[in-house]
Amino acid sequence: MKLINKTVLFSVFSAAILSSCGGGAPIISTPIENIDTTPIKEAPLTEAEAQNWGHLDLVKDTIPGMSVDKAYAEIIKGNKGQKIIVAVIDSGIDIEHEDLDGVLWTNKGEIAGNGIDDDKNGYVDDIHGWNFLGDAYDEQLEYIRLVASGNTTAPRYDEAKAKYDADYNSALAGKERYEGIYNRVNTAHQTLKTHFKKDNYTAKEVNALEITDAESDLGKAVETAKFMYANGMSSLQDGLKQIKAGVDYFSDQVNFNLNKDFKGRTTGDNPDDFNDKPGYGNANVMPVKKSESHGTHVAGIIAAERNNGLGANGVANNVEIMSIRAVPNGDEYDKDVAKAIRYAVDNGAKVINGSFGKSFSPHADWVRDAIKYASDNNVIFVHAAGNSSEDVDTAPNFPDDNVNYVEVGNTYIRVGALAPSYGTKMVANFSNYGKKNVDVFAPGAKIYSTTPENEYDTKGGTSMAAPAVAGVAALVWSQYPKLTAAQVKQIILDSGLAVNTKVIVGGNGEDIRDFSSLTKSGKMVNAYNALIMAAQLSK
Description:
- By secondary structure, the protein is an alpha/beta fold.
- It contains 14 helices and 15 strands.
- The two termini are 42 Å apart.
């Protein structure tokens, strides 16, 4: 096994005996300092490790998780702390999910279903949050809205038009390509299913077939199957599932996201007038279809009920999730995001997760003002850095908290994504980065969490890294409620594990850089160390 070079993982202070605040029992813990001679994990992750890797410990498990399990075992133990409300601005949450139904925020000032705004907050029957999308699901991308407007004098119009011309043709080609692959693999599957007289034939059975005519239907089917097996597919059924996802992705692009003529908004308001139709939308915070699973997955990463014998454990153990539906299958509207942030702040959220983003933002100032509003009201906003393998110090990425690197508040955290392999491949190949505009990295690739209708699935993206950090923020704040939002943010940045190694950027083996050049802190988030630092600051 390889050895990790000496890495100072916690340099703020050395071993210490620290006490918790708020009446809890004293904790005796020392921060993780180094991992000299700790072997890198080279064997594949077990199923249990794969489903929980973001909670594991680099020293104990040789996996670059956030030491969440170690924090519960050695620091938190049975201490529940204070309840923290976490708002999830996303695609909606399955609030009936078996692993989430016990951690929902409920608006105690509202009477369900009476059609009256009982608490006078401007939203009728908002029991578990608010839905700024109404019944909408599909939407255009923001730069397509700009092109569709025909306003050639608008800032970045020429850029948007050129991008549309290139992207639409690429999407059409992608759709045709994936449909062709799907049809070929599906034909092979049907042929093999008929031959074996069963659906669940195995790769071993296929490889054992003796083919005398390679041009026969069976010969072509075996050739296709062997190609799929050689490329990591355990079965043609699994391959069809993944290929179908590609077909759906490009179909959505052609039909909705990149369609200049598509109109997805159903709420009847003017998205370019911030004050038009107050209270638009409705109180149904559920996804409109099962495939709208993003928000449910994000919520589970933060708060899935811990140790209840069901599929996943959230990072935080004493939170309530406020569901705010504002992210469609396409680009979110700036108006919806700005109002969603303000709704969360005004209704008691202490942490807001934003696992969304875009490269065009016509009303970026509305969202920036809302982020400042959160900061001014002692609320943390955690934002995913994005999945285009770009440097967001130079590439536009919204929402943002700064103008020319001057921040409007001090509680915004932007998060890049890690993969479950410490070393050169630890930065997820899709993750954005930025020495000035990305604060920290956290587990984001291959994350197992909740999905609608009491199911669970593995997804990857900075969308998964942001809620990991939101969960740590809630966990720390719950245990140490006297801290300010700005202090919690700084604790997360300062207490992370410093990575003094070179990593592959954007999945390009020829682009190798110091990890510290990809993020402001040069660190990956660590819950164990964050709790220790929080105890110190809370004295």
